[in-house]
């Protein structure tokens, strides 16, 4: 799997913020409208990792996996960027085909993905149960994980199954967003559930590509959201964009050119 992941993983060399050790702050976002709740068939997930000091420079992936061992939502941060980080995934947990679990890992050997070979695995990985009936006051399942060395083999009993093909977003003309955090969210346009997510903690190139494999079904209309801020969700730096595109048999491939998509800016995209 590591070699196949390397073939689609095309990302910029990223500049890390030095010495930061707190979660991304989210404060005073009144100018952004609160998004409507996810479709009633899905539950949101707010996932926080803490104390990930040894994984700051590494690729990080999460997967929401159902009782049939199928990935329902997955996302990446490359690199993780800080010891503490929070991801908000809208509609990540369906209300059918549970129980669900949350698999996540840091690519500790820098192979480009998770190593499914039990005898050769060097990645640090964990698995936690998800109970969609336990929600916080915002209606989201909240998971807070503190780093430990009780690792899990994520291919047990077999590797989880993907449902389709890759979602790829190709960025160009990003000069205006240099130094900012960028997060891509790909959601089913009808249910608004996020099936694919990719976070770049800091943009350092005018052009770059990001890709999430296996999550796009053919012939479905997807909403592509691009959220940007200064890495701390300072209100004056928040910008977000939304477009829709139909997938093909090959997946979803979208060119995001900031100068051309200025008219797609919106104010109802939730912060991380």
Automatic annotation (TrEMBL):
It comes from the Bacteria. The keyword Signal applies. Residues 1-25 form the signal peptide. The keyword Signal applies. Keywords: Signal. This is Lipoprotein.
